[in-house]
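Reproducibility note. Readers wishing to regenerate the assembly model reported in the main text can use the exact inputs given here. Chain order matters: entities are listed in the order in which they were concatenated for prediction.
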Amino acid sequence: MVAFTAKQIGIGGISLSEEWKTRRERIAELIKDNALSPSEIAKIMEMRVKDVLEDLKHIASSQKYGKLMVMPARCKKCGYQFRPEIKIPKKCPKCHSTWIEEPKFKILTKF
Ligand SMILES: [Zn+2]
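Running the prediction on these inputs yields the following C-alpha cells for the assembly.
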C-alpha cells in the first residue's frame, strides 16, 4: 500500500491539479516520508527505472523538494551493504550474487 500525501491546493488562488505538476514534483510527493525503490516508483509513475534514477538525481541536487534520503542497496545473499548512491547495483562485489535489494529513497520534510 502506498500512502499518498494530500494534494496541495492553493487557498484563494487557482487550485493546482495534479496534472499541472511536473513529473519530478510528483515523484517528490510520492516519496515524501515514504521510502520507495526506483522500481516501485517506476511502476506507480508508469516510467522506466532509468528515468526514475535520472529524476531522483535531479531531486537530490535541488533544494526545493526537501532532503532526499537514500537507504542503500543490500545484497540479499551475504548482507553486503552498498554505498548510498542513486543507482541500482547489478552484482555484489563480495559474493558476486545478483540477488540485490534495491536502494530506497524518501524525502524528509520534517527535521
Ligand atoms: Zn553478497
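We highlight two features of this model. The radius of gyration is 16 Å. The CA atoms of residues 68 and 107 lie 4 Å apart.
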